[in-house]
Amino acid sequence: MESFDLMFSNFGIFDLIDILLVAILIYLFYNLLRGTIAINILIGYLLIYLFYLLVKSLNMRLLTLLFNGFFQVGVIALIIVFQPEIRKFLLMIGKNFKLYRNEYWYRFFVRNKTIQREAELAQLKPILDACKSMQENSTGALIIFAKNPEEEHFYKNGEEIDATVSKRLLESIFNKYSPLHDGAVIICEGKVMAAACILPLTDNQELPPYMGLRHRAALGISEVADVVALVISEETGNLAYARQGKIKSNISLHDLEKNLRKDLL
Ligand SMILES: Nc1ncnc2c1ncn2[C@@H]1O[C@H](COP(=O)(O)OP(=O)(O)OP(=O)(O)O)[C@@H](O)[C@H]1O
What we know:
- The chain is built from eleven helices and seven strands.
- It has helices at 2-9, 13-33, 37-57, 61-72, 74-81, 83-100, 104-109, 113-136, 167-174, 213-224, 253-264; strands spanning 141-146, 159-164, 184-188, 191-197, 227-232, 239-243, 246-251.
- It is elongated.
- One of its GO terms (molecular function) is adenylate cyclase activity.
């Protein structure tokens, strides 16, 4: 009881902040793992650890020795097993930091708002027009908006295009008779960089059944790269929008424009 009192007599504001920060980190990490098979791996690992504590307290030497060896390389094993999740986690932190040093303030304070709006609309118009027409014709499409072509390697497996974005170009690529219609188109800095790209699929198990491979590829790439992924469903013509490992389905063209403006421009 005395040691308990002693422990709390030293408890200060920084301890409270410390605990809060750890709780936030655990919550963020749990959020990343939720719905993926990684959460099952973590639960398995924790169960083995509990079993290890049990055999240790019962003084079962042979089993303790065995588990000791396992847990000595535990941290390295965890880093290897959770490598994709740790990567996503770091990416998430980096991205949020980047938000503060983008051109938001410059644009907000310095540039004339009308000119800015016109320029933004001009950039988005061919994409929005193509989406509208593909929606009406129920043409399936997967479009990735990348921010930095140098950083991203996921489109290297597709067909390099490097052409200015236009409505007709997007429609031609996703026309079901086009040899390039399968896979994703990558747009970066106003250019169609590549088409027919194969993207990593998400292993999220909470997706509704109507989200097939196209949606899984959109969500998958948004989990591992700083991109926006847009899906037009071939079956329903619905639009879905994925970013930072989250996907919103059935969004309107108006919401699409708003989101693209917010996330890309
Ligand atoms: N790994 C991948 N990377 C990029 N595109 C992919 C990938 N896997 C599948 N696709 C695309 O998704 C198409 C198949 O989509 P599927 O019908 O499974 O998806 P969906 O999410 O149900 O969408 P839809 O509502 O359009 O049917 C393929 O023809 C291909 O163009």
